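Help wanted!
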Amino acid sequence: MDETVALTLVVNGRERSISVSARESLADLLRERFSLTGTHLGCEQGVCGACTVLLDDLPVRACLTLAASCEGCEVVTIEGLQGPDVERLRGHFRTQGGLQCGFCTPGMLVSAYDVVRRRESPTRDEICAAMSGNICRCTGYNGIVRAIQLANDEALDADNADPVAATTHD
Amino acid sequence: MKPAAFSYHRATSADSAVALLAELGEDAKVIAGGQSLLPIMNMRLAEPAHLVDLAGADDLRDWQESDGDVTLGAMSTHGMIEDGLVPDPCNGLLQHAASGIGYRAIRNRGTIGGSLSHADSSAEWPTVLSACDAAAVIRSVAGTREVPLSDFFFGFFSTALQLDEVLVAVRIPRFAPDRVWGFVKTNRKLGEFAESLAVVTYRRVEDAVVSPRVWLGAARDVPVRLAGVEALLSDDGPDAPPVQAVRDVILTELEQDWDAMDPGERHMAQLHAVTVRNAIKHAQEVHHG
Amino acid sequence: MTDAITKRPRAQGIGARVLRREDARHLHGEGSFVEDLRLPGLRHVAFVRSQIPHGRLERVVVPPEAEPGCVWTEAELAPWATPLTATSTLPSYRTAPLPNLAVGKVRYVGEPIAVAIADSRAEAEDLAESLEVDIEPLPAIVDVAGALDPNATLLHEDWPDNVFARTEGDLGDVDAAIARADVSLTRRYTMNRQAVVPLETRAVAAHYDRSRGQLTLWTSTQTPHMIHDMVAEQLGIDGSRLRVIAPDVGGGFGAKCSVYPEEITLAAIAMHVPFPIVWVEDRWEAQVAMTQARDTVYEITAHADSDGRLLAIEAEIAVNAGAYSVHPWTAAMDAGMGAAMVPGPYDVQNYRFRTVSYASNKAPLGPYRGVARPGACLAIERTMDDLAREVGIEPAEIRIRNMVGPAQMPYTSVARKVYDSGDYPEAVRRATSLIDHDRWRLEQKLLDPASRRRIGIGYASFTEQTAHGCLEWASRGLAITIGKEGARLLLDASGSFTLSVGVKSQGQGHETSLAQVVSEVFDVDVSRVTLNAGDTSLTPRGDGTFASRSMVMAGGATFGAASALADKVLRIAGVLLQEDPDRLFFHQGEVHGPGGTSVTLAHLAREFLFTPDHVPGVDGGLEETFFYEPTQQTGTYTYATHAAVVEVELDTGQVRILDYGVVEDCGTVVNPLIVDGQIIGGVAQGIGTALLEELVYDEDGQPKSTSFLDYLLPGAAEIPEIKIDHMATPSPFTTFGVKGAGESSAIAPPAALANAVSDALADIGATVNETPMTPRRVWEQIQAAEAADASPSEVAS
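Answered by r_m:
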C-alpha cells in the first residue's frame, strides 16, 4: 500500500481535504480524485505543457508537481478558468483556428491567459517565445498566436476604454 | 510513467530539513521545485525511499543583501529571478539567464538551489553562477559551511553536498558597476536544454578588459572555466576574435584534438566556439547598451 | 441535383466559414478522451515491454504473491486471442504474425511481453517491475546494410532473409530515353526515422458486461469499425457482441489507424476478469512502440534533355519497415506508394523502379501524414532543383516546363494514377509571387560572399492521391480494399438531424463540416445536426479517417443520404401543403411552397412520425442510409507547390525559415477555416520532419529519442506565419468537387526546405539530402564543400 499524506487545498475556488498517495502528482489528483479531466497528460516530463494549471496564480506543470507539495495552495484548472481575458481568448481561439483535436487546448489556454493578463504589448516573436512551452501537434500554432494577439489587443483596448474596470481585472 | 513509492516528509524550515535528512539516512533525497528530479523519478531512473520536500520551508525563499553580495535562498525560483522579485547583483545577468530556462511553467517551480544541487552542466545556474564567483551555502545538523561553486561540481548530478546536507542559499558577490556580461545559449529549439552555454564577464575599463571570467557549460560534465579565452580578452581587448581562434583555444583548454575528432564531435566543438564568441560579442553590446 | 437543393445560397453550407461546434467543449476542458473514462471498479494496466531490441525470450517469472488474474503473459492469453498476421497480395510478400504478447523472441525495444493489472497505474507499474524477464540477446538489425547482409541474423527465422517484399517496374522505354538524354544525375536521399507523436498517446479500455454478453472496447483510434472487425476476428467472437467506441481522439495522423496488439490483448483479458481495465500509454511507450514513420532511402537517376525536359526516371527505394507488418497497411505499402509518387506532377512516361521493404529491430512502420509521399517528394524535387542548376534555369521554370498541364487533364501517369484536374504550373507561378521570389534573389546577390550567412529559396511541388477506392488499395496489395463510406441521416420529431458516419475525426472538425453538407441540402443551422461517429453500435460500417478521404467519402455519403431524405421530406411536405413536391424548396429550416405556404421541418417531422395516417402514400421512417464511392477508383488529386526561404548560418549549420508559402488546390472547399487549419498543421509537421524530428537508435538497436527532451517537436517559435494562396479546381469525380485536404501540406516541406538550403549553399557547392537537416548535418556538408572547393555539379549527395 502506498503511504498517504493528508492534504488541504483549494481547487477552482472550493476547499478540498483529501488523503493523497505520497507519489501522486497534482495532475493525477485533479484527474483521478476530483474528476477534473480537462487537465491532460502528454509526456509527464514537463515539456509538452498539456497539464499546465495555475498554482497560487502561476502556471505550472501539474505532472511535475507532487500533490503533497500543494498543502494550502490554490489550484485553478481549465474547468475553473474564467473572466474577461479568458473569454476573449476562448472567442478568438474559435475564430482563428486555435484548436483542432482539443488535447493541448486546456494547457494552451492557461499559458495564453498568463500572457494576456500581463497587459504588455508583445510582438509575434515574444508571444511565440512565451508559448514555447505548450506543444500543439494539430494547428501549426498560427491560429493560436493570432488568437492571443487579438485577445491581448482587445484587453488593452478595453482597459483604455474603462480604466476603472482595468484596475480590477483578473 | 509513475514514480516508485516513497515516504514523504515535509520540511517546515531549513533546520527541519537538515534534521529530517540526518534522521532518514542514505536513501533520502531533497526535492525543491521538482522540475529536474520528478522527470527522472517518473521514468524510475531514481527511486529514493524518502523525499524531503522543501515546499513548506519559507525561510529558504528569503534573500539577504549586503554591500558586497546578495544571498538568495535556495528556493528562489527562476521565475522570481526573471521577474526581478529578488535582487540581481550582476547587472542584469541573472535576470537574463533566468528568462531562458525552459518554459515559463517550469520557471515558476524550478529553483536556483535545486538546479545547482542537480548539477547538470547544460543548465544555466551552474555555469552562470560559477562565472559570478558565487558560493554555495550548505547546512547540516552540524552547522553551515560555504563552498565556492568552482569547487562544488564533481560531475553529472554529483556535487560537494554530503548525504545529510542541504544547499540552503547561494551567495553572489556584487558586480562592479563597470562589469559587463555576455550570455549565449545555443540550442536547436527555444526552451530546450543548451547544446552550448557561454558566459563572459569582465570589467570594461576604457578599451581594456579587466578581470575576465569566461565559463562554458554543456561541454563537459561540469562547467568549465576557459582561462585561455580570458587571456585572449585580457591581451587583445573586448573585440570578438574569429571563430577559429576561439575554437583553437577551447580545444586546447578541453584537451581535444581536432584531427582525432569525428564529425559530430567537431560540430560540438564548433558550436562551443561560436557560442563563446557570440557571448563575447554580446558583452560588447551590453556595454554599448 | 434538384433546384430545391442547389438554387438558393446556404449560410452554413458548402464553402461557409462556419465556426466549429466541437470547440466549445475543448475550450472548457470538457472533452472526453479514453483516459477520461470513469467506470466503477476500473483497474489499470501497465505493460512489461522488452528493453532488448532482439533476443530470445527465455522466460517470464511472475512473483507468487501476485494477485490471480492480474498478470498475463502469452501463455495465459493464447487461448483467448490469436495474433494478427497482416497479409498482402503482392507476390513477393512474406508474412509473420504480430504477437499480442511476445513469445519465443522479442524483436524491438518496447515490444509487449506481459500485462500487469492493479488499482492504479503506479501500482501496475510496480507489479510490472517485479516480473523477472530473461532475454538472451541476439545481434540487432538497425539499417538496410545490416538487414541485407547475407550473414545477417534473421528476425523471422522461417524467412530466407530480412525482406518483407520487393517490387519492381519497368514502364515505357527507359533505355531509349537514356540514350537521348543530354543530362543524367544520380542522387541519394535519406529521410530518417521519426515518430508520429499525436499529443494524446494511445489508450484502450475494455469492459465485459456479463449480463448482456457484450464487450465494449474504448480505444483512441481513427478506424473504430476496422478495430471492431479485427478484434472480433482475433478473439473468435461474434461481431454483434462487440462494441468499439472512439470518443474524442487527441490527434492520430496515421499512428492510430492500425490494429494494435494492445487493443486485442485488452479486449481478450477483459472477457476473463471481473472488472473493467484501462491502459493509458505513457510517452516512453509511445516513442518506442507506436508505429513509426519515414526511414527511407531513395536513389534517383533523372535523365533530361538540355532544356531540362525529363525523359526518364530511375528509382531505387529502401524502406525500413521495422520488426513486424501492421494490419491492414502492411510493411510493403510505403515502398509501393513511394514508387508511384516519384514521377510527381510531371509529364514523364519512362520510369524504372525497384523497391525493398526490409525488417529491422525497431517498432513497426505505419502511416504518418503523407505516408511515403514526403520521401518521394524529397527525392524527385531535390533532383529537379539539381537538374535546373545543371541546365542553367530557375527551379520554378523547370517545374513549369515538366508539369502535366491543365489541357492534359485527366492525365494517366506512368504509374497508372489518373491525375484528374488542376493547373499545376499555375500553382508554381503563384508560389513565386507568394514569397516574392525576385526580392529574395536580389537579397542573395547583395550578400557579401565573406558573410557567414546565406539565403536560399526552395520550391517543392507534388500531386497527392486522396480518397482512393478499392482498386487502388488492391493494387497496393492490401488484404482489404477500402473504398466506400456510409452515412445515415435521421430527422426527428423536434426537427433536428442525427448524422451517423463511419469515419472518425481526430481534430478535423467533422461535427461541423459534415453538418455543413446537411445544411447545404436542408438549409438548417449546423447546430441542428448532431454527429454520431466513433461508436460502432451507432454508425454504419465505414473504414475510418486516414488517406485524406473523409470529406470526399463521408461527405459524399452524407450528401447521398441527405438527398434521399430530402426527396422524402418534400413528398411529405407536398402532402401537408397540398403542393407538387417539385415546386417546393428548403429555406432556413422550413419547406416553402411557391404561393408562400410553408411548414417547419419540426412540424413536418412531428406530424409524419406521430400521425403517419395524415401523410398517406409515403413509406414510414424519416431516415436514409447511403453508401458512397467516387466514380474514379484511383482517387482525386490534390496538388500544391510550397515555397520556402531560409537563412543558413555557415558557422553552425543552423537553418532559420524566413518565409514559407503554400499554393494549394484541394478542389471545392467545404470549410475554409478547417482547411486552412489542416494546411498550417501539415506544414508544421513537415517542418518537424525537415529540421527537427528524428528517432535515433544506436548501433545496438537501443532507442535514444525516448522522451521530448531528446525528440524535438516544433513549438510556436519554430513555425513562421504560413502564407496560403488557394486555387480551387473542382474534382470531376466527387460530390461538390471536393478533394482530400488532410495530409497534403506535410508532403512538401522537407523538399522545399532542402531545396532552399541547397540553394543557399550553392555558391559553396554544398547540398543537403538528408532529413532532419540538423545543424550538424548541414555544417558537415558545408565543411566538406569548403574543404574540397568543389563546384555544385560534382557534389553527388
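OP: Thanks! One thing I noticed: Chain A touches chain C through 57 residues (CB under 8 Å).
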